[in-house]
Write a structure and sequence with these properties.
Keywords: Acyltransferase, Membrane, Transferase, Transmembrane, Transmembrane helix. This protein is an alpha+beta fold and 496 residues long. The chain has helices at residues 28-40, 43-59, 63-74, 77-97, 120-130, 135-147, 158-161, 169-191, 214-222, 240-254, 278-286, 322-325, 346-365, 368-382, 409-418, 423-436, 443-453; strands spanning 103-109, 117-118, 154-155, 198-204, 229-233, 259-265, 291-297, 308-317, 328-332, 338-342, 401-404, 462-469, 473-481. The protein has a single domain (103-364, 394-481), classed as Thiolase/Chalcone synthase (Peroxisomal Thiolase, Chain A, domain 1, 3-Layer(aba) Sandwich), CATH 3.40.47.10. A nine-stranded mixed beta sheet has the order 5-4-6-7-1-8-13-12-11, with helices on both faces. Strands 2-3 form a two-stranded antiparallel sheet. A two-stranded antiparallel sheet has the order 9-10.
């Protein structure tokens, strides 16, 4: 998602400049949905007291009691058969219905070579030399760059930086290969995994979908096995990375003893806009080259070396609403130039999607004290018509770390204010935006890499990843740091 607060043509009214105030309206149905998810997976919580009572009762048995029980069972074959059958049935039911744990073994983020760096000066020089933009729109892009939160070390592909630019299929394939293979090579080196061990492959890239697909390119390059389960997701925006994680999680539930490789990236080469519509120029100023490779596993043997365990995924889709559907839209301008148009309603749509997502996520992750306060104020407002604002829970009590999609500075500012996060909480997102720009679906992994490089993550820490995407979507993933972070040691930063 991109920053849309910077230009008057994009946002003519002040009401569109900020995310909606979450305290003004929280819909009860999304709270119910969150509690439904909690109760659906709460069978084990209900059985826990029963198990404790049985264990307590057994602990009071003396040796004489056991002899009496044995004598009774010897002369009561029917009781033995019934008890044994019940025990086998319950054990089978438990192991069949229990979800498989999903571990994040490791991940890697692609770092382009220094020759691909694009400072603001280089960006403006190349934009001017194309001859495609009038002087007013060159000044417009300059203002966006200055306010965007991007630094001087972001990256663009060679086809865009070249004079004149060369946006063609061959160059787009070169960019995709460099990003995907660069991230995968580093990941395989980190994990010592053989390509033939990968059983599931999920690739997401919104705006570049060649034939054969990107997933087929990876299978061909690394000679992956013939029965691999592969998916290629397109057109799903910046939140597609978490959709890929959710899909891989579901696949790992039905494919035991498997590894899943997830690739999140975007392609710049064929999606650079060379027209003069301002609603389509913003993406040029914010989106940059990048990608990430993530290795997931459902093998019990990987729990010790894995970095994280996936706890929850919550997906929110607002596509049934026409305004939400069209707020990020790829189209042609009057001169036939293709680009992605950002609506003036983008911030309002994003705020509504975020509110829905966190309202559903809250019951799954928040401590009971926060849930009771939230629920009490909500009941007072909805049922008793009390003139009070719904209580917005403190998500800092549920998570130690936050990875919020680095779509733009204005978006990060508003999320920080609405969720009452600190500068420390927002640092990974802001620094990722500054260092790498908006790398679309992979930005969350650059943020996680930054958090690790600073030595912040310890075993047991909880991580919230949240991303926005066209459609319109808002998706969340919750991770818990596992044995891979038991030492809490610092890692080498991506910049070296």
């Amino acid at each position: 998602m991109s920053e849309s607060k910077l230009s008057k043509p994009l946002i003519p009214s002040s009401s569109s400049q900020k995310l909606p105030d979450f305290k003004k309206s929280v819909k009860l149905k999304y709270v119910k949905l969150g509690y439904h998810y909690l109760i659906t997976h709460g069978m084990y919580l209900c059985l826990s007291p029963l198990i404790v009572l049985i264990a307590a009762q057994l602990s009071t048995f003396s040796l004489q009691d056991l002899y009496v029980l044995w004598d009774h069972l010897q002369f009561n074959l029917i009781s033995v058969i019934l008890c044994s059958t019940l025990l086998v049935f319950l054990s089978t039911l438990y192991f069949v219905t229990r979800p498989r744990p999903v571990y994040l073994v490791n991940f890697s983020c692609y770092k382009p070579e220094d020759a691909r760096q694009c400072t603001r000066q280089i960006f403006m020089e190349r934009s001017r030399l194309t001859g495609s933009f009038n002087e007013e729109n060159l000044q417009f892009q300059q203002k966006i760059l200055e306010r965007s939160g991007l630094g001087q070390t972001t990256y663009l592909p060679d086809a865009v930086l070249r004079v004149p630019p060369n946006p063609c299929m061959e160059e787009a394939r070169k960019e995709a290969e460099a990003v995907m293979y660069g991230a995968i090579d580093e990941l395989l080196a980190k994990t010592s995994l053989k390509p033939k061990d990968i059983g599931i492959l999920v690739v997401n890239c919104s705006l570049f979908n060649p034939t054969p697909s990107l997933s087929a390119m990876i299978i061909n390059h690394y000679k992956l096995r013939g029965n691999i389960v592969s998916y290629n997701l397109g057109g799903m925006g910046c939140s597609a990375g978490l959709i890929s994680i959710d899909l891989a999680k579901d696949l790992l539930q039905v494919h035991p003893n498997s590894y899943a490789l997830v690739i999140s990236m975007e392609n710049i080469t064929l999606n650079w806009y060379f027209g003069n519509e301002r609603s389509m120029l913003v993406s040029n100023c914010l989106f940059r080259m990048g990608g990430a490779a993530i290795l997931l596993s459902n093998k019990w043997s990987d729990w010790r070396r894995s970095k994280y365990q996936l706890v929850h995924t919550v997906r929110t889709h607002k596509g049934s609403d026409d305004k939400c559907f069209s707020c990020v839209f790829q189209r042609e301008d009057p001169n036939g130039k293709v680009g992605v148009s950002l609506s003036k309603d983008l911030m309002a749509v994003a705020g509504d999607a975020l509110k829905t997502n966190i309202t559903t996520l809250g019951p799954l992750v928040l401590p009971m004290s926060e849930q009771l306060l939230f629920f009490a104020t909500l009941v007072g407002k909805k049922l008793f018509r009390m003139k009070i604002k719904p209580y917005i829970p403190d998500f800092k009590l549920a998570f130690e770390h936050f990875c919020i999609h680095a779509g733009g500075r204005a978006v990060l500012d508003e999320i920080e204010n609405n969720l009452q996060l600190s500068d420390w909480n927002m640092e990974p997102s802001r620094m990722t935006l500054y260092r790498f720009g908006n790398t679309s679906s992979s930005s969350l992994w650059y943020e996680l890499a930054y958090t690790e490089a600073k030595g912040r993550v310890k075993r047991g820490d909880r991580m919230w990843q949240i991303a926005f995407g066209s459609g319109f979507k808002c998706n969340s993933a919750v991770w818990k740091a596992s044995e891979g972070h038991r030492s809490g040691k610092r890692e080498k930063p991506m910049d070296g």
